[in-house]
Specification:
The chain is of the alpha+beta class. The chain folds into two domains: about 80 residues, 2-Layer Sandwich (Gyrase A, domain 2), CATH 3.30.1360; about 130 residues, Cyclophilin. The protein contains five helices and 13 strands.
Length: about 250
Amino acid sequence: MSLYVRIAYLPAGDSAVVVEFGDAIHPAIHRIVRGFMLALQQHPIPGVRECIPTYRSVLVLYEPARLWYHEVIEQLKARAAHLEADAIPVPRTVNIPVIYGGRGGPDLEFVAEHAQLSPDEVIVLHSDAEYLVYMLGFTPGFCYLGGLDERLETPRRAEPRTGIPAGSVGIAGRQTGVYPIDSPGGWQIIGQTTVRLFDPHRNPPVLIQAGDIVRFVPQKDMKTEFNHRLHRLFLKFFSSFSNRCHRRNLWL
């Protein structure tokens, strides 16, 4: 981890400032990002339109007609000076049910082969971890999660798919996440969830926020399970029927 001794205030165009706290992806740096966001929420700056947290910084967008750049910096420094006084709430845990493999997880076998593990071992490693939501981006509600077991690190697909269904759970490098809407993408898809991470008709429309903890909970594919049971029953019935016919010489 590399935390800056002094917070960096960097101009981003003529109406935004990047407040940077470090140069690495680390829970401790992210905790400071959350604390700064909380300070801005509790003590809003008139003229600031939006604040967007990232892995290690906060983008602050302001109205240049109301605030000079140096005024924004002064206000931001005043908020940063009281980070210790702002209590960060306990993270919320969100459980995401996932059906791994099958049609909804076409790349599970590839991830397992790359990691030299069985598909079941991949599922256990992926679902045993707790994932910190560092930031949202790419598409509405897409969460960038930290905490993936290093054994599951897998490169992106050589050729991205033009369409990935909403709810697809994927791995790319040391990251894992869930596609909130139908979109193109190059992550390795290992499962599917029915949870809607983004719903424009819901308030708020985004289910998961930065700072939350995500857990993936394996679920059985009931349709596939039913088909497997039906197939086993058919084989059992056919075997029994065949034996009876053989004993009674009923085969023609």
